[in-house]
Write a structure and sequence with these properties.
single chain; Oxidoreductase; alpha+beta
Length: about 120
């Protein structure tokens, strides 16, 4: 699947006609740009697909080698896998792999650095 097709699915629309931007304006387009930028500016990014639960829909979690991470909502798990593959990063189902220790370590370090602690 092409990057354009995966992102079009993420945006909930068909691929843009030739000559038009492939990115929707507003928050969805910003989400796509953000994911691409996160992967472009970090080393060793992996994606983890999180299933929907009672409070949130499916999400894609990107984790860098340093443990820095970001999470974004997606329409469904299939779209999350397609988007991650289109970004060219390894993708895992968090139900089977769990969360990487480096992510937990990074989050703990951020809490310790937070003002007021």
């Amino acid at each position: 699947m092409s990057l354009r097709t995966a992102f079009s699915r993420l945006l909930g629309r068909s691929a843009a006609p030739a000559g038009e931007p492939a990115q929707a304006p507003g928050t969805r387009g910003e989400t796509v740009s953000y994911l691409q930028e996160f992967v472009r500016t970090r080393v060793g990014v992996e994606a983890y697909v999180e299933p929907p639960n009672a409070q949130t829909p499916s999400t894609v979690l990107l984790v860098a080698t340093t443990g820095e991470w970001t999470r974004r909502r997606v329409p469904d798990e299939r779209t999350a896998f397609e988007v991650a593959r289109s970004l060219g990063v390894p993708v895992y189902n968090v139900r089977f792999t769990g969360y990487p220790q480096r992510m937990r370590d990074w989050s703990s370090a951020q809490r310790r650095r937070a003002p007021g602690r």
